[in-house]
Amino acid sequence: MFHFTVMKIHEFQAKRLLADYGVQVPEGRVVRTAAEAFDVAARFGGTVAVKAQIHAGGRGKGGGIKIAKTPEEAEKYAAALLGSQLITPQTGPEGREVRVLLVEKGLNIKREFYLGIVIDRSVGKPVVMASSEGGVEIEEVAKRSPEKILKEHIDPAVGFQPYQIRKLAFGLGLNPRQVSTLMVKLYQAFEDLDCSLAEINPLVETQEGDVLALDAKINFDDNALFRHQAVAELRDFSEEEPLEIRASRFGLNYIKLDGNVGCMVNGAGLAMATMDIIKLAGGNPANFLDVGGGASVEQVKNAFKILVADPNVKAVLINIFGGIMRCDTVAEGVVKAVQDVGVALPVVVRLEGTNVERGKEILSSSRMNFIVADGMGDAAKKVVAAAG
């Protein structure tokens, strides 16, 4: 079964990978104590940046990046950041705990740019995006000034062509000689490592004429991690939701949300539709959970256990269309899970498709208090009502 999720890494890890490919990055050191921050700043001399390392953007807006002019300032900022809950536009109100910092040598910055590569699924090709609006979220640039985003689609059969690099460089107002090697190396890393995103924001030009990756973000397609053991080992479990980690060990696609209706569905499209119809009925989904098309009884059982392990869940909706996934398999897994866990929550079940009658028989003969729904609309209304 394929997962439609990504693995994220920290900025300092992304920069190490890019540096291995020949992309120029600022000199920096990872620290985990305030005393280490003092030592690194003293060794560098002059101005340094003290940067919180969490899996979320907008760290500067949240106060997670501090400019220190002395080692004493670096130590003070490090002491304040380490162990704090950093709240950014991407973390949500709960924030993320800062466990590690990156201390980097200051640069004489002249200009800032954006450079990134993603997969454009509408054409099935990587697209290199560049903008003179560096240091700003690219989504904001797209809303405010879409004409400032330059795009070049890359045909994987022929690779990143020199004329495309020249177009992007001239569009940014840079000499192609300054950035051609960096762009080629960034694309090489993106392709070699099976990335879903490789982003440098900002890409900076210094007063000395150098072009460096001042910040970097790389995400990986987790379907390809079996080919990249060294990359897989960069995963920081402390940055992920415990229930999401647990789900990944059973081959389940699970994303925790902030609602109170637990959802178990087979198929990403049906899962999205289920969350929409719950919202339409006046409720809020507590998760995205796709058990896939070929889940076993054991996987269904574990999926259900993960659902109810979320303390925010007040009712559960099981919405299964039996194509490859048989309804009786789902019913068996759910019954076993309820027996094992002893769930007291209301459970609404909507089954349709292969072996649906057998599935309903298994639920009714279990003598458990399942709420059987007739159609998605009925299921959504019943589960929202049950969740209160």
Structure summary, number of beta strands? 19
What share of the residues does DSSP label as strand, in percent?
A: 25-35%
Give the helix tally: 13
Largest sheet: 7 strands, antiparallel
Mean pLDDT: 90
- What overall geometry do the principal axes of the alpha carbons give? elongated
> What is the rounded Rg?
25 Å
The helix content is: 25-40%
Structural class: alpha+beta
- Poorly predicted segments: none
Q: State the end-to-end distance.
A: 35 Å
Q: What topology does this entry show?
A:
Blueprint: E1 6-8, H1 11-20, E2 28-31, H2 34-44, E3 48-52, E4 65-68, H3 71-81, E5 85-86, E6 96-97, E7 101-105, E8 109-120, E9 125-131, H4 138-144, E10 149-153, H5 162-172, H6 176-192, E11 195-206, E12 211-213, E13 217-221, H7 229-232, H8 242-249, E14 253-256, E15 261-265, H9 268-280, E16 287-290, H10 297-309, E17 315-322, H11 327-341, E18 347-353, H12 356-365, E19 370-372, H13 376-387
Parallel strand pairs: 15-17, 17-18, 18-19
Antiparallel strand pairs: 1-13, 2-7, 3-4, 3-7, 5-6, 8-9, 8-11, 9-10, 11-12, 11-13, 14-16
Helix pairs in contact: 2-3, 5-6, 9-13, 10-11, 11-12
